[in-house]
Amino acid sequence: MASKVRAPFRVGKKAVFLPDFTLTLLRTPFLPPTFAKFLVPLNLNKLDLRDYLWHAYGVNATRIRSFVQQQKLRQDDPSRLRPMPRRWFRAKAIKKMTVEMDKPFVWPEQPEDFTPWDKDLYSAAQKHNDQHQESMRPENLYKGPADKKTLAEQARKLLKGEDKWRPSGDMSKE
């Protein structure tokens, strides 16, 4: 699409055929339609983004602004198996780039019906995943035996004398 039209700028020499990075176009309703904001990898520079947008989508980026947003400093890495409360951790920084384009881009309207994308299945899987992760947290690992009610009932019967004690290996009926 853009290969037949000559670029209005000097094209970079780095050829990218199958990119190993992810660009995320952010929905920014407060920006005018000639601006687009992207989440980009930390090692991507303005010239790389300009070349990529030109070659992949035929978009002429007239100006590009970038900034690196540092994450908050907090105690304990959330991905650790065992919590370590006095260890300080800073998450990886986020790089954002704002591109000014010569032609406006308008976001399409959000669909009313999400059934072609299986949103219900995705939501159910996300809920199941959240419940599983919550159950695996250190404070929730052991909540007592699963048959707590039946054990309490057996103990009550033993104390009242309604049932006799048998060792677990004893299979004889009395």
TrEMBL record:
Segments of this protein annotated with the region Disordered: 121-148
Ranges of compositional bias, category Basic and acidic residues: 121-137
InterPro entries the UniProt entry points to: Nucleotide-bd_a/b_plait_sf, Ribosomal_uL23-like, Ribosomal_uL23/eL15/eS24_sf
Keywords, in A-Z order: Ribonucleoprotein, Ribosomal protein
GO MF annotation terms: structural constituent of ribosome
GO-annotated cellular components: mitochondrial large ribosomal subunit
Coiled-coil residue windows: none
Record-stated family: Belongs to the universal ribosomal protein uL23 family.
Protein name: Large ribosomal subunit protein uL23m
Lineage: Eukaryota, Fungi, Dikarya, Ascomycota, Pezizomycotina
